[in-house]
C-alpha cells in the first residue's frame, strides 16, 4: 500500500505542477491577484481544475499511506512546475533554477528515505483537530502580516509559508478522516475554509513573479508541517537518524534560498 500511496502522490504532483504554473501565469498577468478577478480568467480556472484533480489523487494517496510518505512526494511537482511555468512565459528555465530545484529535491527525498515507511492508524479527537486548524490559521495570519512589510522574494516566500502551513494541517486532518475509522466526517464542512484561504494566499505569492521561490517554499513548508503534525498528533514515526534528517532539511532549505536568487518570472 505504501508503493501505491507514493505512486498516487507522484501522479498528483504532476497535476499540482501543471495547475500551479497556469495559476502563476494568470496571477502575475492580472491587475491584481484577487479571487474574483482570477475567476474570470479561463486559464486560471483550468489550472485550478488541475490542482483539484491533483488534490483528489492526493486524498487517495493519504488513504493508502502515512503522511510521512505522501506529503514529501510533492517535491516532484517542483521539478515539473519550473519548466512548465517558464514555457508559459516564453523562456527556458535557467540552469541555476534547475540546479537549485534539484537540490531541494535531493533534500526532501533524503527525508523520505530516512523516515520509516509504516505508521499506526491515525486517531485525533475533535478538539485536537479544531485546535490544529486554529493554530494553522493563526500562523498564516502572522505570516500574512509580516509579508506586508517585506519586499523582493521575501514576500512571496512568507505568503507561501502561510499557504503551506494551512495545506499541511489540512492534509493531517484529511488523513484522519479518510483512514481513521470513518469518524470526524463533520470536519469536511470546516476544511474548505483553510483550503480556500491557502489558495488565496498562494495566488498573492504567485503574483509577486518569484514563482520558483514561492513554489519551492510551499513544497518545503507543506510536508514539514504535515510530518511534524503526524509525529506530534498522530504518533507517526520520525527519522531514526536525526543528524542525517537535519542535514537533508538544511539541503532542501539551501536549495530554496538559491531559488530566491534566480531571475523572477515576468508577467
Automatic annotation (TrEMBL):
The entry's keywords: Membrane, Signal, Transmembrane, Transmembrane helix
PANTHER family the UniProt entry points to: CONSERVED INTEGRAL MEMBRANE ALANINE VALINE AND LEUCINE RICH PROTEIN-RELATED
Name of the protein in question: DMT family transporter
Signal peptide location: 1-19
Residue spans crossing the bilayer: 53-86, 98-115, 127-146, 158-178, 184-202, 214-235, 241-260
Highest taxon of the lineage: Bacteria
Amino acid at each position: 500500500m505504501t508503493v501505491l500511496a507514493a505512486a498516487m502522490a507522484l501522479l498528483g504532483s504532476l497535476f499540482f505542477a501543471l495547475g500551479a504554473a497556469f495559476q502563476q501565469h494568470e496571477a502575475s498577468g492580472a491587475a491584481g491577484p484577487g479571487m474574483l478577478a482570477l475567476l474570470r480568467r479561463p486559464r486560471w480556472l483550468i489550472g485550478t481544475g488541475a490542482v483539484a484533480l491533483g488534490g483528489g489523487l492526493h486524498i487517495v494517496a493519504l488513504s493508502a499511506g502515512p503522511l510521512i510518505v505522501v506529503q514529501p512526494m510533492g517535491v516532484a511537482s517542483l521539478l515539473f512546475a519550473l519548466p512548465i511555468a517558464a514555457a508559459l512565459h516564453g523562456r527556458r528555465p535557467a540552469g541555476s533554477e534547475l540546479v537549485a530545484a534539484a537540490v531541494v529535491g535531493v533534500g526532501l527525498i533524503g527525508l523520505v528515505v530516512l523516515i520509516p515507511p509504516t505508521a499506526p492508524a491515525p486517531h485525533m479527537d475533535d478538539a485536537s483537530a479544531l485546535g490544529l486548524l486554529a493554530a494553522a490559521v493563526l500562523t498564516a495570519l502572522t505570516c500574512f502580516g509580516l509579508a506586508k512589510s517585506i519586499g523582493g522574494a521575501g514576500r512571496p516566500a512568507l505568503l507561501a509559508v502561510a499557504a503551506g502551513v494551512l495545506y499541511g494541517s489540512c492534509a493531517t486532518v484529511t488523513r484522519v478522516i479518510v483512514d481513521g475509522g470513518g469518524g470526524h466526517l463533520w470536519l469536511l464542512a470546516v476544511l474548505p475554509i483553510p483550503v480556500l484561504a491557502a489558495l488565496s494566499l498562494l495566488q498573492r505569492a504567485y503574483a509577486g513573479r518569484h514563482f520558483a521561490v514561492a513554489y519551492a517554499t510551499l513544497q518545503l513548508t507543506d510536508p514539514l508541517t504535515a510530518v511534524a503534525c503526524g509525529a506530534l498528533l498522530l504518533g507517526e514515526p520520525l527519522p531514526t537518524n536525526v543528524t542525517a534528517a537535519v542535514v537533508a532539511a538544511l539541503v532542501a532549505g539551501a536549495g530554496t534560498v538559491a531559488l530566491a536568487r534566480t531571475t523572477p518570472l515576468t508577467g
